[in-house]
Each structure stands twice: as C-alpha cells, then as structure tokens.
Specification:
The complex is a heterodimer.
Chain A: H1 4-24, H2 41-49, E1 56-59, H3 64-69, H4 74-81, E2 105-108, H5 114-129, E3 135-140, H6 147-159, E4 163-169, E5 172-173, E6 176-177, H7 187-191, E7 197-202, H8 206-216, E8 222-227, H9 260-278
Parallel strand pairs in A: 1-2, 1-3, 3-4, 4-8, 7-8
Antiparallel strand pairs in A: 5-6
Chain B: E1 11-17, H1 18-32, E2 36-40, H2 48-51, H3 54-59, E3 64-66, H4 71-83, E4 87-92, H5 102-116, E5 122-129, H6 144-148, E6 153-156, H7 161-171, E7 176-183, E8 190-195, E9 206-210, E10 216-221, H8 226-238, E11 242-247, E12 250-251, H9 258-266, E13 269-272, H10 281-286, E14 293-295, H11 306-312, H12 316-327
Helix pairs in contact in B: 1-7, 4-5, 8-12
The chains are: A alpha/beta, B alpha/beta.
Chain lengths: ~280, ~350
C-alpha cells in the first residue's frame, strides 16, 4: 500500500470514476441517490495509504472514495449504482452502502455518526484478540454534533483502542454550513483534555495528509481532521454551485456564508496539479 | 413442543429459579464457546444484573466486561465485534434503556444481513422488564411490539426457568439479532432444566393443555403474562373447561405458525400481553384469529403507585372476564392482589 504509484493513482481513479458517473447520469440508469466523493480523493486515499494489512474501515454515506481507496472492486461498485444483482451488495444498498469485506471495507452507515460506533466495535474486537490491527471510522464534520461521536471518543480513550477517527470536514451538512451548527472553535480545541492524538491536514496537501495518516496509525486512539471541499451537491450529479439547495434565501442559512464554490475551485486546481506531478 | 437433546452429558438441574437459569445459560454458553462476550453497565458489579451475570464474571472475567453508559454506541459496536468474530451479548438492566439504541437496532443491526446477503454471527441483547413494585412509567416497559415490527430483529420472551436458560443459549448460538427479554417479576419462579447439553432445541413455541371433556378455550400469552393465563386456566379447568395455554416464545408472529393454526381450530381464543394493545403483539396475534379476545394494559403509561399499577396490568380476573364473554358463563372474579416481590430491584 505504500508505493507512490498507488498513492497517486487512487485519487485520480476516484476522481475519474466520479466524473464518469456525472457524465453518464443523463442516461437515467442510476436511480439510487448518488453521493459523490469529489473533493475527498486525496484525504481518503492518503489515510488509507497509511493503513497496514488487516486493518479495517467503516464508511459514511459518502463512501465512493472510501470504497475505492480501500481497494473495493470498481465493476461491482458501478453495478451497485445501477441496481444490479452483481453489485457489491447485490443492488440492495445503492450508493450509500458500498462494501467489500475482502479488502477490509466492512460497510457503511448512512446515518451520520453511526459509522463511528461500528468501527469502535471493530477496534474493540481487535484489542480483545490482541493482534495489533487498527480500525478506521470515516465521517464528516456533522458527526461531531451527534452523541455517538462523544460516546465513542470516551470509550476509545478509556480502553486505548486502535481506532482512527477520520473527519473529512467539508463544512456542510446537506446544505447547512458549519457556522450554523457548531461553535466557531477549532476542532482540536474541542478535543483538548481528551487523551487522544490529534492531527489536522489540508485536503489539498497530499504530503500533509499522508504524514498525518502515518502518525495516526499508531495503535492508539487518534483523530484526524482533513479540511475538504464538497465540489458536488449533497446528493446527485450537479455541481455544488448549481445545487437547488445552494440558493441564497434572505435570512436563510446560505446568505451569510462565503461561497463553497470558491473553495471548490482551488481544490480542483490543487488536485489536478498533484495528479500531473504524480504522472 | 420444546425438546432437548443432550449430547455432551452436562447434567440437568431441578429447583432452579428463573434468575439462576439466566445465569446458568450464560455460564454454559461461555464454557461451550470462547468467542462469547457479555457486556453492559452492571454486568461486573457486585450484584451482576440481579445475580444473572455474577457467576459468569467470576469464571470468565476477561469476557464479562463493564462498560460506560453509552447504550447507543455500544449497540453499534456489537456489529463491529461480530464482524471481528466475537459473539457479544449486551445487557440492559431495564428494557426502557433500549429506545436509546433504536438507531443501531433499526438501521444497522436489522439491515446488515439483508444488505450483505450474509448471516451475521449471533448478536444478543438482553433486557430486563422491570414490572412490579412501583417501577413506574420508564422502568417497567414491555416494548416487544416495537422491536417485532422491524424485519431483521428477533424477540425472545422466555416464561419458565427452562425457557430463560434456553433463550440465553439460543440468543448466543442463533445467527442474527436476538433481543432477549427477561422479566424481573419471574426471577424467583422455580422449575427444572432437565438437560444442559451443547445441542438443544428451543424457540418453536410451547403449549400446556388442561384436559377435560368440556368446552375448549385457547389462551395465548406473551412472556410474563403467561402467569395470569395459567392461573385463569386452572380456575376455568376446575369448572370443566378444556383450556390450552400457548406460548409462541419468539416474535415476530408468523401467520402460518402451528399455534396460530391451532387457535383458529379451537375457535375460542384469548391473547394476553403485558405490552400495550395498540399495534401490540396480542393485537397482532388476534389479527390472524377471527373473534380472538385481546387482554392488555390500557394505552397509557404504567403508573408507579402499586395500587394503580395492580389495576393497570392484565390480571387473572381480566382473562377470566374475557373467557366468560367467549364461553357465555359467569366467571368468579378473584380480587386483585397487590404484587409484592421479594428481593431488591
């Protein structure tokens, strides 16, 4: 999992897959609600690159990048989006329920925060066996608003579980900006006092993400926040800037917030630059 | 209908209380299978969930694990543990704590096997129904119906000590999500567990018949409500009525279950439950059996005052009144007695 080729190719693969989904969406054959990972490529692939054989992960509803980075079968993912029995969960789950246990991607929860509890169980089971593996929970910034995050933080710290909390912070819960949901205190300040290793990385900084991932894969509880940009709408194949949810309503949640699209543009450029550099 | 097959030769026991049966079930399960875990708040404390996990903790301290009061996350963690090959049992000292965990019960555990076309290892959740001695509206509830509504969850409702023993064994050996309800007011009931072998058979339903040549009456009870069913049956039998008291043992109810068919054949039928009537198990059973009388508590929360509480739950008198309507006879109504339970809660 550590060759540069792998690490550079996976983000490109994820991006290419997501763009192809957008391109083919007009055919109307993908009828499940598609949650695209565009913007999460480097963040997710960088963390997964730091994992060791036998490590396992549980994903969120926005799981395409997580599935592909862990090594999930591409054809079975595409089949799943098309509702085919050859899909990775037999067409019964759709975009939010990708899974490939054979590569350690055990599945997802489409309920915000719930991926953490499942991954906590994995990490707990690993400790009870004492075999040195680790578990990863992927979730977004909104999970910090759920009770489960704090319950699991408590248990992971209490039992010193090999659980890596990976928060891809895109600042949006569906359409509601983080400014409306959480106090404007950096995450690491909120975690101060907990006996947990905290790392932060910029979602456009490949070196920074992989370095933070290596630090977090240390067999103890750790929290990695990666700032990312959701380039696409919450659900569907429109750009975030074109999303029906992205309308400024006077006094509504978007009117006072800087455009997410501006951030998206810079992320695209950074990603493209990294892909060129790695080619 | 309940049979047991002893292979390994573990001897049976008699004079066992319901409480001891729960403990024995856990002890035997853990001795047969080293991948079984017992988790929860109070499983490793001085009393060990009213004495039901204490022995297991003494014998297997590394597998009986005290936890924080984080019911919701622990329920999600059961899946992670199962995916790592463990067979966990999470214990709630009151069933009323279960609503905290509905997210993972309904969205995670109940859906996993369906989504992944795979059998989950056994995942057990044991919860104590606290009924009796003024436990009140949020420490006494029978929420079996809510759980039975969700495909992918199996509810176990043991009535006799034998059932309690096998329900624990069943919950820890049967693939899927098994929610075992046990009833605090039955804890001192005594019975026999004839065989305790590695292989057993339980959960297909059970009935007991009070034979006579008279009119036939079928009574189906759920969980602890079977106590009133049997008391009513004995009184009716003494008046010449032939009564069959049946126990489905598990939910959800399947319309083609032998006992549903029997109820239809017997004609006169009463369904009794300690859960609410509206969308409840007794009502669900009655939906399969035309003319079935339904005896349940009212659709209000349960009061704490022992005087109000005694009126609130279905009593033997309530079952006899329903029987009287079906049989067209006057049934003597015994006075309601306050339920006085020994031991601490």
């Amino acid at each position: 999992m550590s060759s540069d080729n792998h690490l550079t190719d996976i983000p490109a693969l994820i991006r290419a897959v997501e763009e192809e989904i957008v391109a083919r969406d007009s055919g109307g054959l993908m009828r499940c609600p598609i949650h695209l990972s565009t913007g999460n490529e480097l963040a997710v692939a960088g963390v997964v690159g730091a994992l060791k054989p036998g490590d396992r992960a549980v994903g969120s509803h926005r799981c395409h990048a997580e599935y592909l980075a862990m090594g999930g079968n591409l054809q079975r993912m595409v089949d799943e989006l098309h509702g085919l029995s050859s899909g990775c969960v037999g067409g019964k789950g759709g975009s939010m329920h990708l899974s490939d246990p054979s590569v350690g991607f055990m599945g997802t929860s489409a309920i915000v925060g719930s991926s953490i509890s499942i991954a906590l169980g994995l990490a707990w089971g690993m400790v009870l066996k004492g075999d040195g593996r680790a578990a990863v929970a992927f979730f977004g910034d909104a999970a910090l608003e759920t009770g489960q995050f704090w319950e699991c933080l408590n248990m992971a710290c209490l039992w010193r579980l090999p659980l890596i909390f990976v928060c891809t912070n895109n600042g949006l819960a569906t359409a509601t900006p983080i400014e409306y949901r959480q106090p404007q205190v950096p995450l690491f300040r909120r975690l101060g006092g907990w006996p947990i290793l905290f790392q932060y990385a910029d979602g456009r900084d490949w070196e920074g993400i992989t370095a933070a991932g290596e630090i977090c894969r240390n067999g103890l509880p750790s929290f990695l926040e990666i700032a990312v940009t959701r380039e696409m709408a919450h659900v569907g194949t429109k750009r975030e800037k074109d999303s029906v949810l992205n309308i400024d309503v006077p006094g509504g949640v978007r009117s006072e917030v800087s455009s997410a699209f501006d951030r998206a543009e810079s992320a695209v450029k950074a990603l493209e630059a990294s892909m060129v550099a790695g080619a | 209908m309940t049979g047991v097959g002893d292979v390994s030769g573990v001897t049976g026991v008699s004079g066992v209380t319901y409480r001891q049966a729960l403990s024995l079930g856990l002890m035997d399960s853990m001795s047969f299978d080293p991948s079984i875990l017992c988790l929860g708040v109070g499983v490793a404390d001085g009393t060990g969930i009213f004495g039901t996990t204490r022995e297991a903790h003494d014998s297997y301290p590394s597998r009986v694990l005290e936890t924080p009061i984080s019911e919701s996350s622990l329920t999600g963690a059961l899946l992670g543990l199962a995916l790592e090959g463990w067979k966990p049992m999470l214990v709630h000292a009151r069933m009323d704590f279960l609503p905290l965990t509905m997210e993972h019960l309904v969205n995670t555990l109940a859906k996993w096997s369906y989504l992944h076309s795979d059998h989950l290892p056994p995942i057990a959740i044991r919860c104590v129904v606290g009924r009796g001695r003024g436990q009140g509206p949020t420490h006494s509830q029978d929420l079996s119906a809510i759980l039975s509504h969700v495909p992918g969850l199996r509810v176990l409702m043991p009535y006799r000590p034998l059932d309690a023993y096998y329900a624990v064994r069943y919950a820890l050996t049967t693939p899927g999500v098994n929610i075992l309800m046990d009833y605090r007011r039955l804890y001192d009931d005594k019975g026999e567990i004839p065989l305790r072998g590695k292989f057993f058979f339980w959960g297909q339903g059970f009935y007991e018949t009070y034979w006579s040549g008279g009119t036939k009456l079928f009574i189906l009870g759920f969980g602890d409500a079977l106590r009133e069913c049997h008391e009513a049956a004995k009184r009716l039998h003494s008046r010449g009525v032939q009564v069959r008291v049946a126990d489905l043992q598990t939910a959800p109810i399947k319309g083609d279950h032998t006992l549903v068919q029997q109820a239809k054949e017997w004609g006169r039928c009463i369904a009794v439950s300690s859960g609410h009537r509206s969308c409840g198990l007794a009502s669900d059973f009655a939906s399969y059996v035309p003319g079935c009388e339904i005896v349940t508590p009212p659709d209000t929360p349960c009061p704490a005052s022992p005087y109000l509480e005694a009126d609130w739950y279905p009593s033997t008198a309530d079952v006899l009144t329903a029987a009287g309507r079906l049989l067209g006879i006057d049934c003597a109504l015994p006075e309601k007695k306050l339920q006085v339970l020994e031991g601490s809660f």
